[in-house]
From TrEMBL:
Sites where the protein binds NAD(+): 76-89, 277-289
Gene symbol of the encoding locus: leuB
UniProt protein name: 3-isopropylmalate dehydrogenase
Domain Isopropylmalate dehydrogenase-like, first and last residues per copy: 4-347
PANTHER family, alphabetized: 3-ISOPROPYLMALATE DEHYDROGENASE
Localization: Cytoplasm
Pathway entry: Amino-acid biosynthesis; L-leucine biosynthesis; L-leucine from 3-methyl-2-oxobutanoate: step 3/4
Keywords: Amino-acid biosynthesis, Branched-chain amino acid biosynthesis, Cytoplasm, Leucine biosynthesis, Magnesium, Manganese, Metal-binding, NAD, Oxidoreductase
Taxonomic source organism: Pseudoxanthomonas suwonensis
Residues that bind substrate: 96, 106, 134, 219
Enzyme class: oxidoreductase
Lineage, uppermost ranks: Bacteria, Pseudomonadati, Pseudomonadota, Gammaproteobacteria, Lysobacterales
Pfam family, one: Iso_dh
Catalyzed reactions per annotation: (2R,3S)-3-isopropylmalate + NAD(+) = 4-methyl-2-oxopentanoate + CO2 + NADH
Protein function: Catalyzes the oxidation of 3-carboxy-2-hydroxy-4-methylpentanoate (3-isopropylmalate) to 3-carboxy-4-methyl-2-oxopentanoate. The product decarboxylates to 4-methyl-2 oxopentanoate.
Swiss-Prot/TrEMBL site (Important for catalysis) positions: 141, 186
Length: 359
């Protein structure tokens, strides 16, 4: 197949992890007989520097026309003045909103070879397989904001329709897994959470009688996620809770550099990006973990291009590389780390070597 992939490297380690991932997609194309076209555009801080805005119209238009978007990360100290007129992060929010990508899938499956990198005891991690579905285009991120000399406000608003569509997407995914859905909110305090809880209960009761729904408050969820991670299958939650809980969930896997994501809407186009940020503390050193971005490329093949076998080939190659302890500095024992490029090369070798019949 021919596919047009818009590539948005962004800032910090973004260009490094994206540059490591494109050859992986090329290797898949060669192995399986596809042609992927890559069209690079600016987003985030680099777009502010070059065009004066974090999401130039040309970037959004290219993304709207593309089959899928692969993104690195945005932001960094250079653009973080609290009084700045524009911020890199606004570009990311605007492209998610502009493409209508309301459901952000963030899977966590600790790999046996990396359990030692997690601060959580290994016996709690075996068999953990959690999919967080984070609402991505509503809530406090997108409500009206005000700022005066004496105060500031961020409005948190959710509509029934916004809750219905993301809960429906999460329940559909639960149906293809273990049939268990946990909806996380703060219904003991927030009105938006009480609406969320009502709508989630109704959608699952009326449309997904085969899915078991449980509600959990976000504060105790933050605790249970670490104390009994095996209890969770699909977790659906609002925008900000999902942001925070998934960085926490990355510690089950052992590194933020292992968690991919897929941002999906009603159509085929999606944005695929690691859940982590631009990691300014390690940018430019060639040591960032590329696996989260490579695994995001696998999600791209699966969700936007419908290439399941190809997606599985990437996931198997990353898994094999982890088994072989091909670890970047975030996972490796001292003195044992490979570079970003070496980790990607290990994945490519395994894609090339893999018996297709077995993939
Ligand atoms: P971060 O996720 O960038 O980094 C947190 C920590 O994790 C750092 O110590 C970093 O070195 C480490 N880390 C992250 N990714 C890694 C990888 N692939 N390999 C090895 N280590 C990795 O979070 P932060 O430092 O709070 O934010 C930095 C900037 O990134 C901010 O400007 C923030 O707004 C932005 N950000 C962007 C995105 C995005 O583009 N989707 C996501 C989160 C944060
Ligand atoms: C993420 C990031 C973004 C978010 C920021 C950079 C806007 O933290 O993708 O998780 O909060 O959604
Ligand atoms: Mn985040």
């Amino acid at each position: 197949m021919h596919a047009n992939i818009v590539v948005l490297p962004g800032d910090g380690i973004g260009p490094e992890i994206v540059a490591a991932t494109l050859p992986v997609l090329e290797a898949v194309a060669a192995r399986f007989g596809h042609a992927f076209g890559f069209q690079e555009h600016d987003i985030g801080g680099i777009a502010i520097d070059r065009h004066g805005e974090p999401l130039p119209a040309a970037t959004l238009e290219a993304a709207q026309r593309a089959d899928a978007v692969l993104l690195g990360a945005v932001g960094g100290p250079k653009w973080s003045d609290p009084n700045a007129r524009v911020r890199p992060e606004q570009g990311l929010l605007a492209i998610r909103k502009g493409l209508g990508l309301f459901a952000n899938l963030r899977p966590t499956r600790p790999h046996p070879a990396a359990l030692g990198a997690s601060p959580i005891k290994s016996h709690l991690l075996e068999g953990v397989d959690i999919l967080v579905v984070r609402e991505l285009t509503g809530g406090i991120y997108f409500g009206d904001k005000t700022r005066s000399n004496s105060d500031a406000t961020d409005l948190c608003r959710y509509t029934v329709a916004e809750i219905e569509r993301v809960v429906r997407r999460a329940a559909e995914l639960a149906r293809t897994r273990r049939g268990h859905l946990t909806s996380v909110d703060k219904a003991n305090v927030l009105e938006t959470s009480r609406l969320w809880r009502d709508v989630a209960s109704r959608v699952v009761r009326e449309e997904f009688p085969d899915v078991t729904l449980e509600h959990q408050l976000v504060d105790s969820m933050a605790m249970h996620l670490l104390s009994r991670p095996r209890a969770y299958d699909v977790v659906v939650t609002e925008n900000m809770f999902g942001d925070i809980l998934t960085d926490e969930a990355s510690m089950l896997a052992g590194s933020l550099g292992l968690l991919p994501s897929a941002s999906l809407g009603a159509g085929k186009v999606g944005i695929y990006e690691p859940i982590h940020g631009s990691a300014p503390d390690i940018a430019g050193k060639g040591i960032a973990n590329p696996y989260a971005t490579i695994l995001s490329a696998a999600l791209l093949l699966r969700h936007s291009l419908g290439l399941e076998q190809e997606a599985a080939a990437i996931e198997a190659a990353v898994s094999d590389a982890l088994d072989a302890r091909v670890f970047t500095a975030d996972l490796a024992a001292p003195g044992q780390a490979v570079s970003t490029t070496q980790a990607a090369a290990a994945v490519i070798e395994r894609i090339q070597a893999r018996d297709l019949a077995a993939a």
